[in-house]
Design goal:
The chain contains 14 helices and 16 strands. It is α/β, with parallel strands linked by helices.
Length: 418
Amino acid sequence: MTLREEIRETGLRARAAAAALARLDTAGKNRILAAMADRLIRDRRRIGRANAADMDAGRRAGLSDALLDRLRLTGPRLEAIAEGLRAVAALPDPVGRILGRRTRPNGLRIAKVRVPIGVIGIIYESRPNVTVDAAALCFKTSNAVILRGGSEALRSNQALADSLAAAGRPLGLPAAAIQLIRTPDRAAIRHLVRLTGLVDLVIPRGGEALIRAVAAHARVPVIKHYQGVCHIFVDRDADAEMALDIVENAKCQRPGVCNAVEKVLVHEAIAPAFLPRLAQRLEARGVELRGDPAARRLAPSLRPARASDWTAEYLDLILAVRLVPSAAAAAAHINRYGSHHSDAIVTASRAAQALFAAEVDSAAVYINASTRFTDGGEFGMGAEIGISTDKLHARGPMGLEELTTYKYVVRGNGQVRR
């Protein structure tokens, strides 16, 4: 059997499993999730040996310390993964929820009902915890899932997937509800994202190169975000201390994540007083600041910004600064150079807040808060499958509801259209 045929068989099995999943009730799904959590802890030694083999191979391959840290499964990390399964079990099940009802004059009763998407492919890098997180979220929403993790975590992912299957099988988990593509051959991704009619949605989780490669080859819908070029606009009516705290948090807490701020726009009316304070505070935290000519005149320690700085996602302790004359100009700049991820305004002006919220075209718009809150857990979703900067069908952090769609169930008593 060729690799293309093998991946197609995986899709066929997933499609059959999706139909079986639709028959599982919430209580049954929650029992399986709890059993999966217990099984991960029971299998910790086997999972640990698999992860140790991946770590050894990663060191020999020259993986960076950061990538090795993402790959590592310690005892506390495995316990946290198991606890995540229990947390998903505790979340409300969106499947079957009635979104709306209406009765037509002819007596037809129409209900809009939340239902699973069907078969979801998840393509991800490095982090083996995604194997469990993605499987849990898709299973809770009665979706069959096909997982394709990074080759550097292949043994760890296989061990985790085997534990999930072993726990769920005696309790009614369909055999192909959670499938892991076990070949490191990258051609498997290309075949997976072309399974029209079998795979309903693909969600890539990883760097921009991975997401663009998936989108370029896909023949099925893809939910994506390429970059997190996030902005904070400090308005003329901003509380300076609040603005300094927000910018420092958004840049320095975790600079290597997609909701960290990469650009700060400062209203030119307050820039002479605010910008030197910002430079002093961030440079003390090791941040390299790059500014436009107007900003550099007020804070000479800033390095000159290049044209590429306004669209760059640094994922590092680097920040670009520009002066703007108004909230409208800030919104225009963000819409032109940003990535439609997360952008914030700091201001006491209700008019500026309203303008910014209305005009900035981003998945999350913040007023007087850090962009670092764009996260499923922080939004009260309990867990997330990823963050989308698309507009269809999901936008922003994607929790359980974003892994569902809806259909109309129409009840009558013999009506025919005339």
